[in-house]
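Project standup — Tuesday

K.O.: blocked on the structure for the chain from last sprint. Re-posting the sequence here as requested.
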Amino acid sequence: MQPYGVQLSDFYLRMNQAPIGIFDSGIGGLTVAAAIHKAFPQESILYFGDTAHLPYGEKSIDSIQRYALEIADFLLGKGCKMLVIACNTASAAAYDLLKERYGHQVPIVDVISPLVEMIASKKYKKVGVMATKATVRSDVYNKKLHELNPEIEVISLATGLLATMIEEGFFNNDISNAVLHKYLTYPDFEDIEALLLACTHYPLIRPEIEAFYDKKVAVFDSVDAVTEKVRLLLTKYQLLNKSTDNPIQRFFVSDYTQSFEQTTRIFYQKEVHLEVATL
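H.V.: unblocked you, prediction finished:
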Protein backbone atom coordinates (compact mmCIF):
# COMPACT_ATOMS: atom_id res chain seq x y z
CA MET A 1 0.00 0.00 0.00
CA GLN A 2 0.98 3.61 -0.48
CA PRO A 3 1.31 6.12 2.37
CA TYR A 4 -1.91 7.93 3.25
CA GLY A 5 -2.29 11.58 4.07
CA VAL A 6 -0.77 12.96 0.89
CA GLN A 7 -2.32 14.24 -2.33
CA LEU A 8 -5.32 12.25 -3.56
CA SER A 9 -4.42 9.86 -6.35
CA ASP A 10 -5.85 6.90 -8.22
CA PHE A 11 -4.72 4.81 -5.26
CA TYR A 12 -7.35 6.43 -3.04
CA LEU A 13 -10.04 6.09 -5.67
CA ARG A 14 -9.37 2.36 -5.66
CA MET A 15 -9.06 2.16 -1.89
CA ASN A 16 -12.37 3.78 -0.98
CA GLN A 17 -14.22 0.54 -1.75
CA ALA A 18 -11.80 -1.55 0.35
CA PRO A 19 -13.04 -2.93 3.69
CA ILE A 20 -12.51 -1.56 7.18
CA GLY A 21 -10.60 -4.04 9.34
CA ILE A 22 -11.76 -4.39 12.96
CA PHE A 23 -10.29 -6.70 15.58
CA ASP A 24 -10.69 -7.72 19.19
CA SER A 25 -9.56 -10.51 21.48
CA GLY A 26 -12.92 -12.12 20.92
CA ILE A 27 -16.51 -11.04 20.82
CA GLY A 28 -16.84 -7.67 22.55
CA GLY A 29 -15.49 -5.72 19.59
CA LEU A 30 -18.62 -6.67 17.70
CA THR A 31 -20.35 -3.80 19.54
CA VAL A 32 -17.93 -1.46 17.74
CA ALA A 33 -18.35 -3.29 14.44
CA ALA A 34 -22.14 -3.07 14.73
CA ALA A 35 -21.98 0.67 15.39
CA ILE A 36 -19.65 1.24 12.43
CA HIS A 37 -21.90 -0.85 10.20
CA LYS A 38 -24.95 1.14 11.31
CA ALA A 39 -23.20 4.46 10.72
CA PHE A 40 -21.65 3.43 7.40
CA PRO A 41 -23.87 0.74 5.83
CA GLN A 42 -22.12 1.18 2.49
CA GLU A 43 -18.74 0.17 3.96
CA SER A 44 -17.43 -3.39 3.83
CA ILE A 45 -16.20 -4.79 7.14
CA LEU A 46 -13.73 -7.54 8.00
CA TYR A 47 -13.80 -8.50 11.68
CA PHE A 48 -11.25 -10.67 13.44
CA GLY A 49 -11.83 -12.15 16.89
CA ASP A 50 -8.71 -13.73 18.41
CA THR A 51 -10.66 -16.41 20.22
CA ALA A 52 -7.66 -18.74 20.49
CA HIS A 53 -5.98 -16.29 22.87
CA LEU A 54 -8.81 -14.68 24.82
CA PRO A 55 -9.03 -13.13 27.30
CA TYR A 56 -6.34 -10.56 26.57
CA GLY A 57 -6.86 -9.10 30.02
CA GLU A 58 -4.85 -11.97 31.52
CA LYS A 59 -2.01 -11.89 28.94
CA SER A 60 1.37 -10.13 29.03
CA ILE A 61 1.94 -6.95 27.01
CA ASP A 62 4.48 -8.75 24.83
CA SER A 63 1.96 -11.47 23.97
CA ILE A 64 -0.81 -8.97 23.19
CA GLN A 65 1.54 -7.00 20.93
CA ARG A 66 2.51 -10.16 19.07
CA TYR A 67 -1.13 -11.13 18.54
CA ALA A 68 -2.00 -7.60 17.37
CA LEU A 69 0.81 -7.57 14.80
CA GLU A 70 -0.28 -10.95 13.41
CA ILE A 71 -3.91 -9.83 13.14
CA ALA A 72 -2.95 -6.52 11.52
CA ASP A 73 -0.86 -8.42 8.95
CA PHE A 74 -3.85 -10.66 8.24
CA LEU A 75 -6.32 -7.79 7.80
CA LEU A 76 -3.96 -5.68 5.71
CA GLY A 77 -3.27 -8.78 3.61
CA LYS A 78 -7.01 -8.78 2.88
CA GLY A 79 -6.72 -5.21 1.56
CA CYS A 80 -8.24 -3.27 4.45
CA LYS A 81 -8.09 0.53 4.15
CA MET A 82 -8.30 1.19 7.90
CA LEU A 83 -7.63 -0.71 11.13
CA VAL A 84 -9.85 -0.35 14.19
CA ILE A 85 -8.55 -1.87 17.42
CA ALA A 86 -11.90 -2.71 19.02
CA CYS A 87 -10.39 -3.82 22.32
CA ASN A 88 -9.30 -1.67 25.23
CA THR A 89 -6.61 -4.10 26.34
CA ALA A 90 -5.10 -4.34 22.85
CA SER A 91 -5.41 -0.57 22.42
CA ALA A 92 -3.47 -0.01 25.65
CA ALA A 93 -0.77 -2.53 24.79
CA ALA A 94 -0.39 -2.29 21.03
CA TYR A 95 -1.82 0.94 19.54
CA ASP A 96 1.49 2.81 19.53
CA LEU A 97 3.30 -0.21 18.09
CA LEU A 98 0.73 -0.64 15.30
CA LYS A 99 0.89 3.06 14.45
CA GLU A 100 4.68 2.85 14.23
CA ARG A 101 4.56 -0.27 12.07
CA TYR A 102 1.55 0.41 9.84
CA GLY A 103 0.60 4.06 10.32
CA HIS A 104 2.24 5.03 7.04
CA GLN A 105 -0.05 2.59 5.21
CA VAL A 106 -3.52 3.02 6.69
CA PRO A 107 -5.34 5.10 9.33
CA ILE A 108 -5.47 3.29 12.68
CA VAL A 109 -8.16 3.91 15.31
CA ASP A 110 -8.08 2.64 18.88
CA VAL A 111 -10.93 2.65 21.38
CA ILE A 112 -9.12 4.66 24.06
CA SER A 113 -7.93 7.90 22.44
CA PRO A 114 -11.31 9.01 20.99
CA LEU A 115 -13.06 8.50 24.34
CA VAL A 116 -10.28 10.22 26.29
CA GLU A 117 -10.37 13.23 23.96
CA MET A 118 -14.13 13.52 24.37
CA ILE A 119 -14.01 13.25 28.18
CA ALA A 120 -11.11 15.70 28.53
CA SER A 121 -13.06 18.30 26.53
CA LYS A 122 -15.89 18.18 29.08
CA LYS A 123 -13.69 19.40 31.98
CA TYR A 124 -14.80 16.85 34.56
CA LYS A 125 -12.90 16.99 37.86
CA LYS A 126 -13.31 13.33 38.90
CA VAL A 127 -14.07 10.35 36.66
CA GLY A 128 -14.22 6.61 37.21
CA VAL A 129 -12.99 3.92 34.82
CA MET A 130 -14.22 0.32 34.72
CA ALA A 131 -11.95 -1.99 32.73
CA THR A 132 -10.13 -5.33 32.55
CA LYS A 133 -7.18 -6.03 34.82
CA ALA A 134 -4.71 -5.47 31.98
CA THR A 135 -6.20 -2.09 31.03
CA VAL A 136 -6.21 -0.94 34.65
CA ARG A 137 -2.65 -2.23 35.11
CA SER A 138 -1.50 -0.20 32.10
CA ASP A 139 -2.86 3.00 33.73
CA VAL A 140 -3.50 4.22 30.17
CA TYR A 141 -6.69 6.18 30.89
CA ASN A 142 -5.11 8.01 33.80
CA LYS A 143 -2.02 8.89 31.75
CA LYS A 144 -3.87 10.01 28.64
CA LEU A 145 -6.48 12.03 30.52
CA HIS A 146 -3.78 13.80 32.53
CA GLU A 147 -1.94 14.70 29.34
CA LEU A 148 -5.02 16.62 28.21
CA ASN A 149 -6.29 17.76 31.62
CA PRO A 150 -3.70 17.64 34.44
CA GLU A 151 -6.34 18.59 37.03
CA ILE A 152 -8.63 15.61 36.49
CA GLU A 153 -8.80 12.83 39.10
CA VAL A 154 -9.10 9.36 37.58
CA ILE A 155 -10.24 6.36 39.65
CA SER A 156 -9.81 2.99 37.91
CA LEU A 157 -11.42 -0.28 38.94
CA ALA A 158 -10.72 -3.73 37.49
CA THR A 159 -14.08 -5.40 36.89
CA GLY A 160 -13.01 -8.88 35.87
CA LEU A 161 -16.38 -10.60 36.20
CA LEU A 162 -18.28 -8.43 33.75
CA ALA A 163 -17.03 -9.64 30.36
CA THR A 164 -17.66 -13.31 31.17
CA MET A 165 -21.03 -12.46 32.71
CA ILE A 166 -22.11 -10.63 29.54
CA GLU A 167 -20.88 -13.36 27.20
CA GLU A 168 -22.96 -15.86 29.17
CA GLY A 169 -26.01 -13.69 28.59
CA PHE A 170 -26.31 -12.40 32.13
CA PHE A 171 -27.27 -8.78 31.76
CA ASN A 172 -30.43 -6.83 32.52
CA ASN A 173 -31.32 -9.39 35.19
CA ASP A 174 -30.93 -10.03 38.92
CA ILE A 175 -27.48 -11.57 38.54
CA SER A 176 -26.00 -8.65 36.61
CA ASN A 177 -27.68 -6.17 38.95
CA ALA A 178 -26.03 -7.82 41.95
CA VAL A 179 -22.57 -7.89 40.35
CA LEU A 180 -22.84 -4.30 39.17
CA HIS A 181 -24.02 -3.12 42.58
CA LYS A 182 -20.88 -4.66 44.11
CA TYR A 183 -18.62 -2.85 41.66
CA LEU A 184 -20.46 0.47 41.49
CA THR A 185 -20.49 0.89 45.26
CA TYR A 186 -16.68 0.92 45.22
CA PRO A 187 -15.88 3.57 47.86
CA ASP A 188 -13.39 5.48 45.67
CA PHE A 189 -16.14 6.01 43.07
CA GLU A 190 -17.95 8.29 45.49
CA ASP A 191 -18.50 11.75 43.99
CA ILE A 192 -17.41 10.81 40.46
CA GLU A 193 -19.01 13.01 37.81
CA ALA A 194 -18.57 10.54 34.95
CA LEU A 195 -17.92 6.84 34.50
CA LEU A 196 -16.02 5.46 31.51
CA LEU A 197 -16.90 1.92 30.41
CA ALA A 198 -13.47 0.88 29.18
CA CYS A 199 -14.32 -2.48 27.64
CA THR A 200 -16.23 -3.13 24.43
CA HIS A 201 -18.47 -5.63 26.22
CA TYR A 202 -19.80 -2.96 28.52
CA PRO A 203 -22.15 -1.05 26.18
CA LEU A 204 -24.57 -3.94 26.70
CA ILE A 205 -24.80 -3.14 30.43
CA ARG A 206 -24.73 0.63 30.06
CA PRO A 207 -28.53 0.95 30.62
CA GLU A 208 -28.20 -0.90 33.94
CA ILE A 209 -25.33 1.32 35.04
CA GLU A 210 -27.20 4.47 34.06
CA ALA A 211 -30.22 3.24 36.03
CA PHE A 212 -28.03 2.63 39.07
CA TYR A 213 -26.81 6.22 39.03
CA ASP A 214 -30.25 7.63 38.17
CA LYS A 215 -28.73 10.34 35.92
CA LYS A 216 -26.49 11.64 38.72
CA VAL A 217 -23.36 10.37 36.93
CA ALA A 218 -22.71 10.65 33.19
CA VAL A 219 -21.90 7.23 31.70
CA PHE A 220 -19.82 6.86 28.54
CA ASP A 221 -18.60 3.99 26.40
CA SER A 222 -16.23 4.19 23.46
CA VAL A 223 -18.65 3.21 20.68
CA ASP A 224 -19.91 6.66 19.69
CA ALA A 225 -16.49 8.29 20.03
CA VAL A 226 -14.82 5.60 17.91
CA THR A 227 -17.51 5.79 15.23
CA GLU A 228 -17.05 9.55 14.98
CA LYS A 229 -13.25 9.11 14.75
CA VAL A 230 -13.73 6.62 11.93
CA ARG A 231 -15.95 9.15 10.15
CA LEU A 232 -13.38 11.93 10.53
CA LEU A 233 -10.48 9.84 9.20
CA LEU A 234 -12.40 8.32 6.30
CA THR A 235 -13.44 11.83 5.30
CA LYS A 236 -10.01 13.36 5.85
CA TYR A 237 -8.25 10.81 3.66
CA GLN A 238 -11.10 10.63 1.16
CA LEU A 239 -11.64 6.94 1.83
CA LEU A 240 -15.41 6.98 2.28
CA ASN A 241 -17.10 4.43 0.08
CA LYS A 242 -19.75 6.25 -1.95
CA SER A 243 -20.88 3.12 -3.73
CA THR A 244 -23.75 1.03 -2.38
CA ASP A 245 -22.90 -2.03 -4.47
CA ASN A 246 -22.86 -5.15 -2.30
CA PRO A 247 -20.77 -4.21 0.74
CA ILE A 248 -19.44 -7.35 2.40
CA GLN A 249 -19.26 -8.38 6.06
CA ARG A 250 -16.95 -11.22 7.00
CA PHE A 251 -16.15 -12.44 10.50
CA PHE A 252 -12.96 -14.36 11.23
CA VAL A 253 -11.85 -16.11 14.41
CA SER A 254 -8.64 -17.89 15.35
CA ASP A 255 -10.59 -20.70 17.05
CA TYR A 256 -14.19 -21.79 16.47
CA THR A 257 -16.90 -23.18 18.69
CA GLN A 258 -20.59 -23.35 17.84
CA SER A 259 -21.55 -21.82 21.18
CA PHE A 260 -19.30 -18.85 20.46
CA GLU A 261 -20.97 -18.29 17.10
CA GLN A 262 -24.36 -18.33 18.80
CA THR A 263 -23.18 -15.78 21.36
CA THR A 264 -22.17 -13.32 18.64
CA ARG A 265 -25.85 -12.50 18.13
CA ILE A 266 -25.86 -10.75 21.51
CA PHE A 267 -23.18 -8.34 20.35
CA TYR A 268 -23.93 -7.87 16.64
CA GLN A 269 -27.71 -8.07 16.98
CA LYS A 270 -28.07 -10.47 14.09
CA GLU A 271 -26.79 -13.87 13.03
CA VAL A 272 -23.10 -13.97 12.20
CA HIS A 273 -21.21 -16.72 10.39
CA LEU A 274 -17.68 -17.21 11.64
CA GLU A 275 -14.76 -18.28 9.45
CA VAL A 276 -11.65 -19.80 10.97
CA ALA A 277 -8.41 -18.09 9.96
CA THR A 278 -4.92 -19.35 10.75
CA LEU A 279 -2.41 -16.61 11.47
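K.O.: great, moving the ticket to review. The first strand starts at residue 20 and ends at 24. The chain has two domains: 10-110+225-276, 113-221.
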